[in-house]
Predict the 3D structure of the following.
Amino acid sequence: MPKSAVYSGKVSFAYDHELTEVTFVKGVTSIGYMAFNGCSSLADITIPDGVTIICEGAFCGCSSLTAITIPDGVTSIGDGAFCRCSSLTAITIPDGVTTIGGYAFYECSSLTAITIPDGVTTIDNHTFSGCSSLTAITIPDSVTTISKFAFSRCSSLAAITIPDGVTTIGERAFRECSSLTAITIPDSVTTIDKYAFRDCAALMKLSLSPAVSIGEDCFSNCTALIAAAADKNMPNVSDLLHYRWHRNVAVIERVNALLCLKGTWDHVEDPPRRSARKRKRTDGVEAPPLRESEAREKIPKVLWRVILEFL
């Protein structure tokens, strides 16, 4: 049986699993701490004009919530405010919002698109982590920091534009974004923390400044990058595929093979000894080592492309 309640801003209805409808007393200016947390039958709600703050955990775990209207006067969305609202498909964040807390939309697994308003400067820890249906997101120019785990496990996100003002991409910020195929990192970014793009297996196009500081295993298991670099015969392949980005043994072997064929030994983890590259003439007499450039010249162009394609 449907159950309704009147919210005055003082009483919490947390974990009321039968609550389906809420009305608000006139004059309410905030949705309090965990006010409707765990109200698993609450499917639709309209926050009234006059509310300026949605506090921590306010609607967390409202697993039946499919739509919510946030008024223009709201300026702050607290930590975990809508986390695990697994049926929420869309939400409009008003332009006046300047703060979106950590975990605010954590594991909103049905959310397909979202626009972050101008004025927000930080995408906090885990804010959109686990939004597995998210295919599009707009990050405004005001953002300077993308914090750790911000978009991790957004497995449907195929592309994202990082604005020029961003200076830091945090630890695991895009980890396991398995559909992400291309990303451009602006020159303003000075630091990409460890594991930031780890397990982005579909990532084939990457643009970044050579001056950026790269954290440990930042691009580990981004195996499609290797094929993409080979296909385009990228001149900076030794930098793009630096072994510190790839701790996986199989990947390291492929990187070493690619760099070997390209004649660049500077970044190979374990280059073969010179004696291993010696050849013999047809008369059995040992000949001088074959230089890398000569090795490449000996390979027909078609075969060379095939080798690069399948490394």
User: Anything to note?
Assistant: Residues 233-253, 261-282, 287-311 have pLDDT under 50 and may be disordered. The helical segments are 224-232, 237-240, 249-262, 292-298, 301-310.
